[in-house]
Amino acid sequence: MNLQAIDTAAVQKLVDKGATDYPGMIVQVREGGRDWIGSAGVADVGTGQERLPQQQFRVGSITKTFTATLVLQLAAEYALSLDDTVEKWLPGLVRGNGHDGNRITVRHLLSHTSGLFAFTLDEELMRRYMGPGLLEHRFDRWTPEELVKISLSHAPEFEPGEGWSYSNTNFVLAGMILERASGMTYAELVEHRIARPLKLTGTYAPGHETGYRDRYVHGYTRLMRPEADAPSHDVSEQNASYGAAVGELISTTEDLTAFLGALLAGRLLPPAQMAEMFTMTPVPDGKWLDGYGYGLGISSVKLANGTTVHGHGGMIAGNWSYLYGTLGGERVTAQHVNGDWGCPPLDLFPEVLEAVFAPAAGGPVTA
Question: Per the database record, which ranges form the Beta-lactamase-related domain (predicted)?
Fold first, then answer.
């Protein structure tokens, strides 16, 4: 694979396609300190503001890769162990209804092998956030303990370590353990351990903040209505505390490519923790994204041309995003659309990955 060139015309064609289905789309490709930006559509349907790589948006479950990185950093410093139990750090929290925090380890949480029910699939939570209820409930405030309690009201899906199931509850608990082990808030950990060292000026954990700290992309929803002409609603402002260390982060394509590039290049974790993070288990069909593997807070997929890329996708009200790159960090790409309908991770975004990481057919990546 020639990492000195990219078929920018092919990528831009897909970006233009994305902007016919969503208000706007942006793709940023970073290689060797140089960037190529492809954008189409708008960041704000009211003003017609164009899509820019410095604009902030909600990254959804890409947050999980940040969270796992923080956990592994603390593990490297012996502040915690991947084999520690949930009970050790959060005594008494995960008990009852078939649950036992003594049997669930930090490794189980980061690898989605704990068996804990995903609180986001709770019927009441879905009523609040996956349809018309979103407009009424998008400013609701949640604590991590409340989210865990919702999960524990459901029986475990399987015994810890004996299956695989994507569960946001795992990363709520991981975030709580991070705070207990470090004595810092999740927002402080993101700032001091990742954002500040990498100079990620647009990346932060908002907590209960409902707006943005800088220029941002407006996020739109059709409230899960399937009609192509269903009205869209601006849900840019929301309280993302239901995302916790699962999906609350705000970032930019500029920052995301810098973060993943540094992670894949081994600049954020020592070799032993890199090996832990990137030991992939095939995702069982029908459990998440077919054909993908999952490590610790990060996934992998082998593209049609044989290239394997690592990263994560994310969805939160008003936003879909995808962040993947080659191990070593030679080439990384971030994608974002500011609408939450359809299912880009299963069609549009993988097409872009194929174009970005295909054998070179165009010109060099330029700044």
Answer: 12-318
